[in-house]
Amino acid sequence: QVLLFGVLAISLKKVAPSAHTVCEIVNARWGKTAHLTFLFFALCANIIVTSMLLLGGAATVEALTGVDYRLASFLIPWGVILYTASGGLKATFL
Predict the structure, then answer these.
(1) What letter does residue 55 receive in the DSSP assignment?
(2) What is the value of pTM for the model shown?
(3) Which of 22, 76, 79, 74 is nearest to 45 (CA)?
(4) Are 71 and 59 in contact (CB under 8 A)?
(5) Calpha distance 26→36 (Å, rounded)
(6) Which tens digits make up the pLDDT trace of 48-89?
(7) Measured distance CA(81)–CA(59) in Å, rounded
């Protein structure tokens, strides 16, 4: 697998040398229409994954503490926002 991804990375750098994301690679390879389509599907996938993580966390909080999952679904994002705003993101990069 490492060899496969190494060869793939070399060929991708030839197609899009300044690309940093998969969406930029799609734009360089197949054009703007494919890029916009890929952006739409990537956004949909991110929304679905975020929803799954949030509901999984809410179900865990409900199982451990007895707090209703709807309330936990509301409070978990606020906890993440407050942690990040108070300097939690800085701790990630240091």
Answers:
(1) H
(2) 0.70
(3) 22
(4) no
(5) 9
(6) 999 999 999 999 999 999 999 999 999 999 998 998 888 876
(7) 20
User: Could you give the residue ranges of the DSSP H alpha helices within the chain?
Assistant: 2-15, 22-30, 32-65, 69-83, 89-93
Q: How far is CA 47 from the centre of its chain?
A: 9
Q: Which two tokens stand for residue 94?
A: 């240091």
List Cβ neighbours of 23 (8 Å cut-off, separation of 6 or more): 35, 38, 39, 42
Over residues 6-52, the pLDDT tens digits come to 888 888 888 888 888 888 989 988 999 999 999 999 999 999 999 99
Place of tokens 């390879």: 29
Q: How far apart are CA 42 and CA 36, in angstroms?
A: 10
Distance in angstroms (rounded) separating the CA atoms of residues 34 and 40:
10
Residue 21, Ramachandran bin (φ over 0: left; ψ between -120 and 50: alpha; else beta): beta
N-to-C CA span, the chain: 31
**C-alpha R_g of the chain:** 19
